[in-house]
Design goal:
Blueprint lengths: L11 E5 L4 H12 L3 E6 L2 H13 L4 E5 L5 H14 L5 E4 L14 H29 L2 E6 L12 H20 L5 E8 L5 H7 L2 H9 L9 H12 L10 E4 L10
Parallel strand pairs: 1-2, 1-4, 2-3, 4-5, 5-6, 6-7
Helix pairs in contact: 1-8, 3-4, 4-5
């Protein structure tokens, strides 16, 4: 019984944006803990490569090429889950992107793109997945937000808006779906060594400023976020819902230092 509290044997999980960075690390963590994991991403080559590598190691991975910002692709994804599993135990809304500009510089198309990719995809997938998560009787949703949704981080106001909304979405769904046996939580990473973050961390002055605000004086790794996500999905976390865990080396509590 004790061991079952700390693994995900027999669970079925969907991870969006699961081919690189935080998404790939989350998928790998869940796979290593015994889950069957379906990853979804837009690039066929990346999906096929990731799934092939995991299967070669005996892990129960599968993949689908889709853009979850698009309604038709979301419905096709849910149809695949229905045909394959008939239930869903874990939904990780990880997919997201950023455009770093001052708020007055965004175009309407950029605004809509960021909202559809970061927020609408998560909102709609939660709604579409609800019957399957309820059928699981031990359903879990983890939304990957950001510390940019908890405070100001120089540029990327629309990104921050979408990530803040994901925190609130998690709280609302946690209360609304609790009696359906579904827990909903959120993680909020700080700078993590991913392709998206490396674009700005290549600037040494910027990287030094990031480290100066971080009590641990380190940049996080994707595995740091994956561990938090996996824990929230485990039976050991059965009484945790509606929470947002900052994975940030202490940055969000560093008011003055």
């Amino acid at each position: 019984m004790q061991n079952n509290r700390w693994n995900l044997e027999g669970r079925c999980a969907l991870v969006t944006g699961g081919t690189k960075g935080i998404g790939a690390a989350i998928a790998e963590e869940l796979l290593n803990l015994g889950a069957d994991v379906l990853i979804v991403a837009r690039k066929e080559l990346e999906v096929n490569q990731a799934v092939t590598e995991w299967r070669a190691r005996g892990l129960n991975a599968s993949g689908m090429v889709a853009d979850v910002s698009q309604p038709a692709d979301r419905h096709n994804l849910i149809q695949l889950i229905e045909n394959t599993w008939g239930k869903l135990d874990i939904l990780v809304n990880n997919v997201g992107t950023n455009i770093r500009k001052k708020i007055g510089e965004y175009t309407p198309d950029e605004y809509n793109y960021l909202l559809q990719t970061n927020l609408t995809s998560a909102f709609e997938l939660c709604r579409l997945a609800h019957p399957f998560l309820k059928n699981s009787k031990q359903g879990n949703v983890v939304n990957v937000s950001s510390v940019a949704g908890l405070g100001h981080v120089r540029t990327g106001a629309i990104y921050g808006m979408t990530k803040a909304a994901m925190v609130q979405l998690s709280k609302n769904l946690a209360a609304e779906w609790a009696l359906d046996g579904i827990r909903v939580n959120c993680v909020a990473p700080w700078y993590i060594r991913t392709p998206l973050a490396e674009q700005v961390l290549q600037n040494q002055e910027y990287a030094d400023a990031v480290l100066s605000r971080t009590p641990t004086r380190t940049i996080g790794n994707p595995e740091d976020v994956a561990g938090a996500v996996a824990f929230l999905c485990m039976p050991a976390a059965a009484y945790i819902t509606g929470q947002c865990i900052a994975v940030d080396g202490g940055m969000s509590i560093n008011l003055f230092g």
